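Same chain as my last thread, 149 residues:
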Amino acid sequence: MRFLALDVGDRRIGVALSDETALLASPHSTIERVGPKKDVRAVALLCQQHEVAEVVVGLPKKLDGTLGPQAEKVIEFVDALRRSLQQRVPVVTWDERFTTVIAQRALIEADMSRRDRREVVDKVSAAVLLQGYLDARRAGGLPPADAGA
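reply #2:
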């Protein structure tokens, strides 16, 4: 069973994929945003290609846990993705606070140049997000409904 995670931004969507045992998350790719319908179609195609069992979308909450304007944009994307996948693949949200910071630190520690970091940070951030989700899932720490909403 594979899981796909998305770090949805205004210009790019970072994509991460789990292994078949749902133990490890790995950066996969970055989707350049071109428009809502094409963006959703690109994610749906990835779900089909990799036989994804569930999609986890990072929800950018504020430090106090409330939702801001970026979170509202992500929720709109999630709604469109759910309509596109038509219940075939569940789509859940997961709190993504600090995933980009963690990803940036890991890339800096790997001695990656600033330019190179810019090209991979979105998919690494998605992998950090997915690993947190998989770990919580394995530990039984997920609520029964939409995990991050």
